[in-house]
Each structure stands twice: as structure tokens, then as C-alpha cells.
Amino acid sequence: MNSRLTKLSAVILLTVGVIVLLSPLNSQWLNWYLAFNSTLLKLIVDLTRVSLIALLLAGLLSPFESLGWWAGWYGDGIETHIPATIPMNLSAKSSSLPQPSRYIIYLDGISQSSADYPKRVQNFLNTLAAALPSDMVFIQDIMAYSALNRPLTIQRPFARVWRGINHIETWNANSPLDIFVNLRNTFQVAVSTDNRYGPVFNRGTAQVILNSLRQRGYQPGEPITLIGYSGGAQVALGAVTYLKYALDAPIEVISISGVVSGNNGVALIDRLYHLKGDRDLLAQLGAIMFPKRWPIMSWSSWNLAKVEGRVQLISLGPVSHSGPSGPIDPVATLPNGNSHLGQTMDIVMSILT
Q: Superkingdom of this entry's organism (predicted)?
């Protein structure tokens, strides 16, 4: 009932927004600012209207890539099970190596736009890779917000725009342009949670992960851990249903400051470790936005998994969502003297080992 009310409210707000922004009656109820005879005010309001229209269109078009992949427009095949044999180009190399004890896949947050991670994220990945036992395989090349595993900066109509944004951010870390990347990827997270388009998007993400596992000689049944940061945690959970079906293997998810809906993947997950800081407003907002995570929804997959012990909530203390006070910052320190990164690494390694 609460879920239906939330969706109905969203549809009503979207409808009103379309009417207000696109209706021919715009001149009667939005041109009030002309009475002030201010060119600057008129410019600001007009730019706001155009931005809202562009934002609306971007949201409506966000499932397009996933639907195109599903329709076969990009030539990528859809598989249901991973082959039970090692690829030929890996068989000789793998014969002399020990069998991996676990495969670990990292899915980045909503700031991901290219194959190159931000400095803070790359430092976390390098630290984790160095700490992992030699018999664990660490996969870091997943584009979490693309069913085609394509970064925003190549093979896209607006690739030059995204490259320009990245170039500006390279020499100006405080540039506000990264909000466009965040908005674009936030829409993809929303698609993942959607009951209509989510299965297609999540199936595409699972296919990307399957392909990456195959390239590294994965054998069905070997344990898998998905590490999702921010929106990457939702993408990871969305893919779990299809990975579980394809691989029939133990699958765990480590959510770092994750914004997760709790309505997909949780029913089949072996274990979900949800790491969240006390100052993480986005993660707290996620718990409010998605009705299936509300405590009163005791029959939801999320709450049933919590009762069964398959969802474990881990507090990171006075840590925010991202940035200099986020969970992977190597400089910020906790009251006990440990760095934010050090604490996160301790928790993650205790889970993995």
C-alpha cells in the first residue's frame, strides 16, 4: 500500500511537472517574472525551466540503453549460464596456478564516468588489491551504470561532452560539472530499482559481470563477493538474482555507503554487509525513500533477510557519504586514531578473510 502510494505520488508530480513545463499555458503561469522587468531574473528563470525540461527528458530516456541491449541493437548476446569450461586462452595459464578461493568484483559510485577512477577511489582499490590473499581474484573494470560496460567517454553520442567534463575536473577538483555525471548515473540507479525496466538493466549488469568472470577463468560454484560503493551497491544487488541463477554459487555483497532499495537481490543473497556512517545523509535517505526497507514492512525481503541474519548492518561511526570525510578517505581520522580508509579496510578484510 505504501509502495503504491509512493509511486502514485511520483506519477502525479511528474504529470504536473510536464504540464507546467511543456503546456502552451506556460506564458500565463510562469511568466510572472516579466512584471519585475529584470533581464537577469528572466534569464535565471528561463535557464531553470530549460534545465528542468532537460532533466525530465534525461530521466525518461534513462532506460533506453538497457532496452536497446535487450533488443539486440548492439550485437551483444544474452546468456543464461556461464560455460562450465575454462576459455582456451586461459586453460594453459591456469593449469599451473592455484584455484582461486574467491572472486571479488568492485562496482563504483555514481561519479563513475570513465575507466579511470578518481584518485581517492583508486587509492582504495590499490590498497585493497595489495591486502588481498594471492588466491583471490580482484576485478575492477566494471562500468556499473551501463548494460554494455561502456564508459560515458567513448562510443556515445555525447562522449565529447563527458570527456570535456572529465578534463575540466582534472585541473579543477572543485568543479560543479560532476553533478551532470552524478545525475546521469543516479537515473541508472533508479532504473535498477524500477519494477518495469529494472529486470532488463540488472540482467545487463549481470551479463557484464559474467563476461568479466569468464575472461578470468571463473569456474561455476566458486564464491563471489560484490563490493558496491554508493549506488554501486544497488547495482550489485540488482545483478545478484541473475548471477545466482547463472552460477549457482555463494554470493555476498559488501555495501559501502550504499543506497539500496531492498526490493531485488536480497531474497537470494547469501549475505549482505551494509557499511554506513552516522553522518551519511544519502544512505539514510535511501532507507526512507524505499518503503520495503521500512521497519513496518516486516514481510519485505529486506526485513526478512535481517531477521534471518543475512543482512548485517555495520556502523562506520562519524563518517559521511563521500569526499574528505567519506569511508575511503586516507587522511580523515576517527576518535580512536584510525583513518576512515583504515577502518573500512579492516572491516572489508575481516569479511573477505
A: Bacteria
